[in-house]
Amino acid sequence: MPKADEIDTYIRTINTVSHKLKKYVNAQLKDLGLTSSTYFFVLKVGERGQLSQDELFNLIHLNPSNITRGVDRLIKLGYMSKEQSATDARMKMLKLTKLGKQKYHQLVNRLPTINGFLVDSLTANQVNDFKQIMKNMETNLDSLIK
Length: 146
Description:
Radius of gyration: 18 Å
C-alpha cells in the first residue's frame, strides 16, 4: 500500500504546477488585460481570423459556460466582437477588433519568452522528454474522459 503522501503525488504535483503556472502567466499578461484563461481565446481567434464559439470550445476543451464568460469579458474590454456568420445565419462568429488585433500581436511577441522561462531550468533532452511525457499524458487523459 502506498504511503499517505504518495496516494495523490501526480494529481497534487500537476495541480500545484498548474496553479503556479496560472499565477505566473496572469502576472506576465496583466498589462495586456489578458489572463491565463483568456489569452488562448485571443490567440486562436487571431490565428484564424474568426471562429465560432463551438470551434473555440473544440480547440480549448473548456466548459462552454467558461468560454462564454471569457468571450463576454473580452467583448467588454473591446478586444473581440460577435458577428453574424456570412454562411450560416444561426451562427455568430468571434473576431478580434482593432484593439484585439493589437493585443494579439503583443501576445504573440511575448508568448515565446513566457514559454521559454517555463523550461529554462531543463536541459534540451529534458525539454524533449517533457514534451513527449505531456503529449502522452494528454492522449491518455483524452481516452479516459471520452
